[in-house]
Design goal:
The complex is a heterodimer.
Chain A (H helix, E strand, L loop, with lengths): L6 E5 L3 H13 L3 E5 L2 H7 L6 E6 L7 H11 L5 E5 L4 H9 L4 E4 L4 H33 L3 H11 L4 H8 L3 H14 L5 H11 L3
Parallel strand pairs in A: 1-2, 1-3, 3-4, 4-5
Chain B lengths: L3 H14 L2 H15 L9 H13 L35 E6 L12 E4 L5 E5 L2 E5 L4 E4 L12 E6 L5 E5 L2 E6 L2 E5 L10 E6 L5 E5 L4 E5 L2 E5 L11 E4 L5 E5 L2 E5 L4 E5 L9 E5 L5 E5 L2 E6 L2 E7 L7 E6 L5 E5 L4 E4 L5 E4 L10 E6 L5 E5 L4 E6 L3 E3 L10 E6 L5 E5 L3 E6 L2 E5 L8 E6 L5 E5 L3 E4 L6 E3 L7 E7 L5 E6 L1 E6 L2 E4 L13 E4 L5 E5 L2 E6 L2 E4 L1 E2 L2 E2 L3 E6 L5 E5 L4 E5 L2 E5 L7 E6 L4 E6 L2 E6 H9 L7 E4 L18 E3 L5 E5 L2 E5 L13 E10 L2 H4 L8 E4 L8 E6 L6 E3 L4 E9 L9 E7 L6 E3 L3 E4 L5 E10 L5 E12 L7 H45 L1 H10 L3 E6 L4 E4 L1 H7 L3 H4 L13 H12 ...
Parallel strand pairs in B: 62-68, 75-77
Antiparallel strand pairs in B: 1-28, 2-3, 3-4, 4-5, 6-7, 7-8, 8-9, 10-11, 11-12, 12-13, 14-15, 15-16, 16-17, 18-19, 19-20, 20-21, 22-23, 23-24, 24-25, 26-27, 27-28, 29-58, 30-31, 31-32, 32-33, 34-35, 35-36, 36-37, 38-39, 39-40, 40-41, 42-43, 43-44, 44-45, 46-47, 48-49, 49-50, 50-51, 52-53, 53-54, ...
The chains are: A alpha/beta, B alpha+beta.
Chain lengths: 204, 1237
Amino acid sequence: MSQVEPTVFIVDDDPAVLKSLSRLLRAIHFQVVTFGSPQEFLERHDPHTPGCLVLDVAMPGLNGLELQEALRVKGSAIPIIFLTGHGDIPMSVQAMKGGAYDFLTKPVHDKDLLKAVEAALEKDRIERRSRAELDDIQERLATLTPREREVLIHVVSGQLNKQIAYDLGTVEKTIKVHRARVMEKMKVGSVAELVRLTERAGIE
Amino acid sequence: MATDNPKKERIQGIRNGAGRAFALMMRAETISQFGTAVRWTHGPARSLIASLAGVLQIHLRPMIQLLAVLCTGFAMSAVGAAHETVLTYPTYLIDTWETEDGLPENSATAMAQTPDGYLWFGTFNGLVRFNGVTFTVFDPANTPQLPSASIVNLHSDGSGRLWVSTLGGLAVREGEQWHTLGSNDGWPSDYVRTFSERGNGDLLITTFHGQVFEFVGGRLTELPPPPGKSGMGYHGCVDEAGHWWVAQFQFIGLWDGQRWRQTVASTTTNADTVGCTTARDGGVWLLVETELRKYRHGVEVSRVRLPEVPGGLWSMSEDRRGNVWISTYRQGVCQVSADGRMRRWTTTNGLFSSSTRFVFEDHEGNLWVGTGGGGLARFKPRRFQSFGVESGLAEAAVNSLWPSRDGGLWLSTQGKGLFRLHDGGVTKVPLPVGVNYAQSVLTDRKGRLWLGTSRDLWVSVKEDFRWIRSEQLSGADIRALFEDSRGRIWIGGVAIASVLDGASLRVFTAADGLQADGARYFAEDSRGVIWLSTDNGVFRWENDRFVELLDNGQPLRNITCLKADAEGTLWMGSRDKGLLCWRDGRLARIASLPIRAVHGILEDADGFFWLASNRGVVRVLAKDLRLAAEDNVSVLDSVVLDLSDGLPSVEFASSVQPNCARDTSGRLWFATLKGVATIDPSEFRLNTNLPPVTVEQVIYHTTAPQSARQPAHDSTVQQLNRSTTQDEVEVSRVAPFTEQLRLPAGSRHLEIHYTALSFSAPEKVRFQVKLDGQDANWRDAGDRRVAFYDLPPGDYVFHVRAANNDGVWNEIGASLAFKVLPFFWETWWFRIVVGLALLASGAAATWLMVRARLRNAAERERSALAYKGAEGARNNLAAIVETSDDAILGETLEGTITSWNAGAEKIYGYSANEIVGQNVSILAPPELRGEVRGIAERLSRGESVDHLETKRVSKKGMRIDVSLTISPIKNERGIIGASTIARDITARKKAEVEAQRHRDELAHLSRVTMLGELSGSLAHELNQPLTAILSNAQAAQRFLEHGSVDLDELRDILTDIVAQDIRAGEVIHRLHLLLKKGEVQQQPLDVNNTVQEVLKLIDGDLVNQGVTMHTKLAPALPTVKGDRVQLQQVLLNLVMNASDAMNSYSSTDRQMVVCTELSDGEGVRFSVSDCGSGIAPDELEQIFEPFFTTKPHGLGLGLSVCRTIISAHGGKLWAANNPERGATFHFTVPVSNEVNE
């Protein structure tokens, strides 16, 4: 949830391939963590860690597609780049349907991998940021009292304190207090910012 | 595309030599070159546009710039109210395409639509074909038949020909063929001003410099120049009688077949104010300065006086709604509607340039406006009209709306008060002092106007805005107002639910069964039952009490709106579950609608529901919804209307009642955050134009560029250099695909690009594709492209179909037949040849072995008889000996031949006379003389020699394969000599060698076939080390590039590369060994080692198939005698069969066991067990017969070859079912003697 450097996770049962891919991605200055089996990844993966997954399709035990499914069940939206030795159509179709981010054929060229990884990380970053921002706004909104919430709605619609006070049947001073508390609780410095937050949170 | 230089030359050339029209056009063009820096689209509007596009989720280029354009309007005086404002009528949505979107140039000179559905337009940088998403540019560089890239005019004629007038001459495109009209055809070095076409296909072509041509019966003829101002072009058109008309400021008239006849006297001296165009209903439109006149049969039938001169006239056209469009040089386009009103569009209201060239209407009714420097604009007729701040509303966000009784509309806005939309004007309504926060607005049948605010309920009894405040509801935050069929007013809001019946107000409390959270939405069904929703539940007012609707005991939450049905059904809009239906105590969710939130539900007179949803307004038949609520229908016919249809926003007012309404005329109204949107359902027309579907391009990768090369005339093949390896090239082929496309063997990554020619909202066009041979059903496909990887060889037909923006499917779509050619070993004939060869050699070998066995038996029998004869039937002996085919000879102990039968003479060639008395060693080849001595020694010891297969020499020196049986002849004194029976086995020996060769060949072919099936596994085995090598090497390259060379790391990388290279080499080596067609070598083999090598080879395949392999290899097994390759082949075959046998089971059940063990008396026993479904008892033996197969693609030879191999090794191969599940194949191979001894 913070500014952690994103990580590229690689899962491949072939130690030589695992090592070489890890080395290549490190050479491109990515932070890399490797796993020798899907089970290991599934057990140790924290969905909160930003990053993407480079996954070999064909592995003994849990195969790539099953891992994809398991991750989904676990609630991880990590973008997955599948590696396959053999462009197997049914499998790629299934993977894509399951939300695979990309499908690369082994041996994979560094440029293709770089492009796919960068795009996947970007997707992950955007999704995470959007989720985090929304969570954050919702959290702040939850701290408002019903009255403050009402005031907020009036404020973002561009009402002056006086008007709000009239509409809500109270005095301007009270509204000022409410308003200050709303600004404080929502952690914003300006009405414009407040409007942006409420729009983002979808408040009518 | 032209480079800079020719462009400059062109500009100068025209400025020097051409007439005024071109000078003007070129000025526009020159401006366009600098225009990007000053165009306003780069300002904030651009970001607005971008964000709108984001809402629409348009990912494809060109980015369609949605611009909700407010069009020119007219003032209406609002009746009896202050704050009069001007209301504008938006009629079109304007989207613009520019160079950023793929246009070769920001100017479009002319436009046409060919019958195949493509739009074509001209620019000075090429002829452009448009499919709604991408632009394909034709210029002399790729189309040599085009005389010039500068396109002046276009026309698509009735026979589908596309006429292209360029600065370099006139070209005609017919199908894929181009013709050029030059001076030989009578075409001058001029450009086309106008094209006009008669019903029979004849053309009138006028040029810029005043010439007039007729294209009749395939011939171009120049007509005499009309008597207007010479050197100046004419506008042409054709009247209902088929007469050509021309118009210029000094002459307006028609061609009567002989001469030009003036029909109308021109009343102007202004050169650029006269023009004409063909009217859609026949007749002629004529523009002379400010007068737009219409002629039928030469008589003026209508005349409209325009408020001003439209401007320097470039072209005119009429659309299907009867509007005449006038494109001007510098003053934008003018629309003159059928009722005579003129509206103008320029840079002030939506165009990026006011220099316009044409207004062209496509098959779907979209109007395309070509500009000089401002790109190509599409004017799409709006389905929704909207009224917002641009129409005079002080605030865009509308909370609530309700039709007024005089055909107008009441609108309450967020914080800016109440408005009245009336006779086309927007008026602000005076409110009680201080009240701006109008929330809910309603007029009842008595004509009272109700207004709910955040703290009061107000009513104006006579709509005279003398407001009365409800004292009882003072302080209540009113959000919902509803009048039921008995005239009661239901009032809801935050923490308030009440009903006003006559003068008595009843406020509901917890005692009535309602929680304290107030009422948000009311509805009444046909029986008069009132339903209401609160923040936390939905209730029915029954027997003076609220009864809550519970779904499995749970309250219904997040309900935003209600609509009670005529049939006693309650429809509910939900914030997160779309549309819900309550019926007979049961809740159903209409899951097949593509929406999440519903904020309002209206029903029109034709039985359609119009849902205000998070994706826009969804139109769906109520009857279908009822069916869907009963049993979950997966597909509902619905149309989603959104920004592309003119909705100002897809965010609707929510949690306020009323937020949408149907007025007495049937018109529907919706409150949105950006104004109010309205649609007349009776005028709504589905876009029923089936979108023509076309396959545009096919791209594939092939490793065989030579064979991919097509015949020389085929210019559609392009080899691109996007290859990833040296051998692989990308081949692109473009339409038309007239015959089956043949892709060379080994082609991969097939991409098919297709399109559907619907231009109303290309981003909403949906596609489905199907590949015969792969897909049983249609599947959704996006992106106008689909890719197939590694299609096996065979014939395919690809189908694609498309639905337009309203979901109307062109079910026929388009198809593309193609064939992926096989490698020779993938061909059916090769498989048959292999099969037949295997069959033939198998049969031959079997036959030969059977025969040999029979012959051996016969031989033994005959020998036995001979002995018996010697002892028991001496009289017959001589006769038997003489008639025998075998050589029978007698000899002394020293080897001197004493007797010689006819058989001997036949075999050895010597007659009895020649040979009797000679030594038998004469019959032996020199190198085998020692053998003869050895035999003599054995004979002298009284031993006999039985069936010794050896070689002898005939009289002629020929080597003969013989089988010798030599027995000592004894009498009472002891051994006195020997008898030799020799049989010529040359033929048998030869056949045996042949049979062995066949067997080996067969085994080899069978291996080749099997390895074909294994290719997936092999690719995996090879790809692993290759991946490691490549990634290591590229990592090293990058380290080196960065200059951060860590020598240790580099050393490690190189070590890994070497190791992986060796690993790849081993895979190849194993493969090579198996594929080798070497001599069969019987040698001592390590059993477990042999097994493990096989498992390595197939490991990848097993992983792919999810098979778990267990091995039980007995330690310290003796070596066996055999051929490594052949035994591995048998193992591989059995393992692959076992794997196949389990592929219908779940992966946890796919367990395989391979065992080796010492088996008494048999040698080593190998077993392969699977957990499949086993083998039918009557097939346990049958499976070893040639051509017996249970696999759809099997040849049925694997097991029969395996059995042959194992038999040749002196072992046995058999199958047995396991006690629990599956089957086990066993085979034995004798232990190698060399180690045992």
